[in-house]
């Protein structure tokens, strides 16, 4: 169950959907590094490690920061139920803006998700619904994406387009400014509504040997609506670049 998802998320290492050959008990491990800018004002760009674990036996899967079971998995369609780490966060001390440094922290959380996916001869489609189970943000996130893989020899290129809907509680937690924060910081009060975030990605994988492959990609999110209009923000486009190496068994 491969996924690219949402603003400020750590990306799945190889967002290739059905482009990898579906093998029973397929296992791949590896790691890499990613870089992402931030939409928050005067907020440092972030370098981060990317752990990669990919296991799928047709009943149970681990996909980097998510894991779950298949409720249905036949032919080219599947329905899965699982959990995924949502790495969205805001740390006031990471901003050089004196007003943002007076705001509250916003923390990462864990999502419970249900996802449907279908692989066809003209591409792969998936859609998911996730909700915060740690009571951090009370997020509800709905995602839909479409991937068209291209394979040539040892090279796989997978362009993806998608869109994410976030409810008002998610946006208000990560982008809103409360009355107390307004009093401390001088930023205007902001109660954020739900919004859409379209995104695009190009992911690649190149097999060096039968077991070792390199991967990389570029992912771009475009914030809209109240997520982009927040007084905390100064950039509505978030770009992430990542690369690494994996080993398959």
Output the keywords:
249 residues, disordered N terminus, globular, Porin, twelve-stranded antiparallel β-barrel, 3 helices, mainly beta
Q: Describe the largest sheet.
A: 12 strands, antiparallel, barrel
Shape: globular
Distance between the termini: 18 Å
Kindly give the count of domains. 1
**Order of SSEs:** EEEEEEEEEEHHEEHE
Corresponding CATH superfamily: monomeric porin ompg
If classified by CATH, what would the architecture be? Beta Barrel
Describe the secondary structure blueprint for this structure.
Layout: E1 26-36, E2 46-56, E3 60-63, E4 66-74, E5 77-86, E6 109-120, E7 123-132, E8 140-147, E9 150-152, E10 155-166, H1 168-175, H2 179-185, E11 195-207, E12 212-222, H3 225-229, E13 237-248
Antiparallel strand pairs: 1-2, 1-13, 2-3, 3-4, 4-5, 5-6, 6-7, 7-8, 8-10, 9-10, 10-11, 11-12, 12-13
What does this structure look like?
The two termini are 18 Å apart. A twelve-stranded antiparallel beta barrel has the order 1-2-3-4-5-6-7-8-10-11-12-13. It has one domain: Beta Barrel (Porin). The radius of gyration is 19 Å and the shape is globular. It has three helices and 13 strands. By secondary structure, it is mainly beta.
Question: What would a concise description of this structure say?
Answer:
This protein is mainly beta and 249 residues long. It has helices spanning 168-175, 179-185, 225-229, and strands spanning 26-36, 46-56, 60-63, 66-74, 77-86, 109-120, 123-132, 140-147, 150-152, 155-166, 195-207, 212-222, 237-248.
